[in-house]
Amino acid sequence: AQSVTQPDIHITVSEGASLELRCNYSYGATPYLFWYVQSPGQGLQLLLKYFSGDTLVQGIKGFEAEFKRSQSSFNLRKPSVHWSDAAEFFCAVGARHSGYALNFGKGTSLLVTP
Amino acid sequence: DAGITQSPRHKVTETGTPVTLRCHQTENHRYMYWYRQDPGHGLRLIHYSYGVKDTDKGEVSDGYSVSRSKTEDFLLTLESATSSQTSVYFCAISETTRGQETQYFGPGTRLLVL
Do A43 and B106 make contact, defined as CB atoms within 8 angstroms? Predict the structure, then answer.
């Protein structure tokens, strides 16, 4: 069965500092991988996705993620964090056999300090 | 926003009463999903649909049923609501682009069962 682990429940970074959110997955075949962001009281917005090809993917709002098969990871990065990036971030893995339904990590809450 | 609406957006009900949540999409997507979001759990799949009258169970389907009599509507029913079903419910659709399936989410329904 597929699963997703986000090891960090909370992360605090200073505005302007770099950010890396970790995501590890367990899946037998090549997974479809996603990062979503959720602002308080809001729905989920797709940041970026990986299906195949180039392992470094660019997303919206200046985020990028790198797929590393050898480490079963899909970490999200941003070079310089803005206060408006404070939100909850979810990593998810999808599979064709289950109607492309997503299996989510438990999320990482990002706090940005001045 | 992928043309997804959910109704109602907020609901308070009492234990033992039936509740139906509606997800409506305007773009004729084949796949639709219901997830619930709870603190510390991320999002978990309840049921999904891969076509009219074609549905399947997800990870947390106990106590829930679904129906899809039209492409555009996917209904989630709590036959007899319990306090453990207090949650935020998200509907999603899967959009196909160049053979890749990407999920987009509705705004959510906040349900409180007293």
Answer: yes
Task: Determine, for residues A100 and B31 on separate chains, whether the beta-carbon distance falls below 8 Å.
Answer: yes
pLDDT, residue A35, reads 98
Buried b (16+ CB within 10 A) or exposed e, B46-73: bbbbbeeeebeebebbeebebbbeeebe
SS (H, E, C) chain A: CCEEECCCCEEEEECCCCEEECCEEECCCCCEEEEEEECCCCCEEEEEEECCCCCEEECHHHCEEEEEHHHCEEEEEECCCCHHHCEEEEEEEECHHHCCCEEECCCEEEEEEC
Q: Give the distance from residue B71's alpha carbon to the nearest chain A alpha carbon, in angstroms.
A: 16
Asked if the model's pLDDT at residue A5 lies above 90, the reply is yes
Q: What is the pLDDT of residues B78-110, one digit of tens each?
A: 999 999 999 999 999 999 888 888 999 999 999
Give, in order, the Cα–Cα distances in Å from B66 to each of A79, A80, B22, B28. 43, 44, 10, 18
Q: Given an 8 Å threshold on Cβ–Cβ distance, is B102 in contact with A49? A: yes
The pLDDT assigned to B1 comes to: 55
* B84 three-state secondary structure: helix
User: In this predicted model, what pLDDT tens digit does every residue of B2-55 receive, in sequence order?
Assistant: 689 999 999 999 999 999 999 999 999 999 999 999 998 899 999 999 999 999
Give the chain A residue whose CA is nearest to the CA of B106. Answer: A43
